[in-house]
């Protein structure tokens, strides 16, 4: 973290300690010991959506900056989002600092710099940012997270899905992953990422995109197989899945082929062992 950013972070978090503000964004990930990407600004976010409480906290942080001899210029001011520029007349240093609202599943961590978004929430938020905007810094941060071994690719997607209104569309996400190749060397150099590491990031997301596409294709094939089997059995897809799930629980070795429909009124579905060709077996896939 840049020294001026650390100064602003400490001042702000102490001033807003009673209002649930924590360090968020890319700096939250690096504060947990993952990567060391420098940022252009500081994000201090809360999960308290009360506008009055939010305004009180922001005013307290403004006062802390002013008392420290810093100058404040407003950029954006709204009920639950404020973007200001803070500068030091003595040194000429300046930075944007954003105050906003975020979603949390976990209790923030108390680290040396102050309260910080839990790593799981920080990663989920960063993956959501990659999904929605796909800036170079988002790709760098997610690459660092997975490269560190803290989480797997599957775990990162699952955590992000929890924060989205709907799970991220995997086909569209694969396209987003490949879009990282459009960034120039200068875009990565801004974050002290050289050409060799940039290539590693691009190749990493290209491989991930391929994996997602393969999974989507497998799921599509499986969906078609289930639909065809359900139609052949005279059931809806949901009924067919329910029947096979119950049979798998009670008689895991009994399903040798597609389930046939009722043979008469009120008769329960049964397995078709006489005419099993094996065409419906062995087509599982890894999710």
Automatic annotation (TrEMBL):
It comes from the Bacteria. InterPro entries: AbiEii (IPR014942). Residues 273-287 have a biased composition (Basic and acidic residues). Residues 249-287 are annotated as: Disordered. This is Nucleotidyl transferase AbiEii/AbiGii toxin family protein. It comes from Brevibacterium rongguiense.
